[in-house]
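sry for the spam today, last one i promise. struct tokens for design, 141 residues
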């Protein structure tokens, strides 16, 4: 599994993560609409449009999870440090792993400079947000 994949799994994203209430409600609402769809008496001979399954976006309260972990591990600042974020999630934050993560995030020629670590941190938070994480706007820019 990729390092970013491990981050997402540690945050509760994935098939084995418990479903959130909004997701469960969205699936139930979709099933209800399908069940209530009326049958037509004068169906044409043309094939019906195939039903397209709509998958609900998984919503994970990333901030709450990270804040809880922060309380249990004082001194780690996940909001500003990629190293601290990785440590907080129980992942190896060494240079080799950060370099691999940088490659996954599209950051080339990663050398572990402060500027690159800041860029890597922002890239990871943005990717988490794109996948349904509730990352505060001020941490993305």
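last one done:
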């Amino acid at each position: 599994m990729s390092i970013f994949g491990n981050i997402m799994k540690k945050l509760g994203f994935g098939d084995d993560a418990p479903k959130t209430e909004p997701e469960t409600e969205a699936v139930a609402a979709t099933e209800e609409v399908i069940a209530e769809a009326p049958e037509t008496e004068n169906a044409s001979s043309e094939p019906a449009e195939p039903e397209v399954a709509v998958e609900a976006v998984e919503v994970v309260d990333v901030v709450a999870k990270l804040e809880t972990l922060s309380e249990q591990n004082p001194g780690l600042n996940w909001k500003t440090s990629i190293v601290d974020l990785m440590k907080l999630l129980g992942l190896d934050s060494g240079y080799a792993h950060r370099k691999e993560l940088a490659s996954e995030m599209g950051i080339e020629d990663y050398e572990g400079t402060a500027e690159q670590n800041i860029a890597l941190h922002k890239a990871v938070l943005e990717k988490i947000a794109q996948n349904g994480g509730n990352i505060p706007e001020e941490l993305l820019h």
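DSSP finds seven helices and no strands in the chain. ok im logging off now
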